[in-house]
Specification:
Blueprint (H helix, E strand, L loop, with lengths): L7 E8 L3 H9 L1 H7 L3 E5 L17 E5 L7 E8 L4 E6 L2 E10 L2 E9 L5 H28 L16 H4 L4
Antiparallel strand pairs: 1-7, 2-3, 3-4, 4-5, 5-6, 6-7
């Protein structure tokens, strides 16, 4: 991609951690709820709930719930190689996370793609998810490198109209 486009976006961040330490933070319920979600559940294609520290696998289904949002995201794990790559369905499109060791750090590359190009998707998915992932990648870095969480877990922001558009730490 040589120019910005509505069908996808990419976000990158360097994190002072090893790939093998970051991968479980993306692929297990226990890992995801440390820095990202209020609750996460993975089920095998046969319907068996995975243990909280068990890594998800290709073909699994997930249910994710955030702090300060009553909804949930449900999707499928399209790829999970057990070491440095995962791809999921997410918000009517796809998200991939690639972890690459670079000079004693890990380059985390998140790509959201196959985004519909209608006006609503441009606002809610391209703009909304792009902003959201920027925050969550910064939150992952803060948590991993300093043990600090930036997302709001104490104040209930759900009854504030437009809170998802105004608060930077949802």
């Amino acid at each position: 991609m040589s120019q910005l486009e509505w069908e996808s976006f990419t976000k990158k961040i360097y994190i002072k951690s090893k790939v093998e330490n970051l991968y479980p933070l993306w692929t297990s319920s226990e890992g995801l709820t440390k820095w990202f979600l209020r609750d996460a559940e993975f089920k095998s294609s046969g319907g068996q709930v995975r243990q909280v520290n068990e890594p998800t696998q290709q073909g699994d289904f997930y249910i994710w719930k955030w702090h300060n949002w009553d909804g949930q995201e449900e999707g499928q794990v399209l790829q999970a190689n057990g070491k440095d790559y995962i791809e999921i369905t997410f918000s009517s499109c796809k998200v991939s996370i690639h972890l690459e060791s670079k000079n004693s750090k890990t380059l985390v590359t998140l790509r959201q793609f196959e985004i519909p190009t209608d006006s609503k998707s441009r606002l809610e998915i391209h703009q909304g998810c792009s902003n959201g992932w920027t925050f969550w990648l910064a939150n992952l870095k803060a948590y991993t490198e300093y043990g600090v969480l930036l997302n709001e877990t104490e104040e209930d922001l759900r009854n504030i109209s437009l809170s998802g558009y105004q608060f930077v730490n949802m």
